Known about the structure:
This protein has 6 helices and 5 strands.
Amino acid sequence: MEKIAIYPGSFDPVTNGHLDIIERGLKIFDRIIITILENPSKQLLFSVAEREELLRKSLPEFTDVEIASYDGLLVDFAKQRGAHAILRGMRAVSDFEYEFQMALMNRRLNREIQTVFLMTGLRWIFTSSSIIKEAAKFGGNIESMVPPPVQKKLEEKFNRSIGENK
Length: 166
C-alpha cells in the first residue's frame, strides 16, 4: 500500500525550508501531496494559481510530489486522496503550541489520519515566508532562502532587484 502524506501550507511563497521538509518527507512517504490551503487570516502576496506555479517550478526533479489546493477540512481532503498522514514542519518551540492544537483537532475529526512532524533543518530554522516577503519588499538579499523562480517572482512583485540594498 502506497504511503501518502498531505503537506499543507500557504506557501506564500515556497521557501528552501519547505523544500527541505518535502525532500526529507519523501524518505518516509512514497508520495507527498503539497496542499495549498486558503487561510483568510493571512495577508497573502500571491494568488493560489501563482503559488501552484511557483511550487511546480521549484520542484521539477521531484516526481513523487503532487500540487493541489483545497479550502475545506484538511482531514476530509486527506481521506479523499487516500492519504494517511499530514506532514508538518516545525522550526522552533514557538510553532509547537499551534501545531499541537491542529494535530489534536485533526485527530479528533479523523482518527485514521496521523500527523507527522519533521524539525526543519538548522539552516532554515529562522526562515519563514513572511520574513522573506518583508526582506524582499525592501530589496534584501534572500537568494539563499528561496528557489530561483521564487526570487524572480518576488522581484517582479516588488519591482526591484533582490539584494539591491546590500
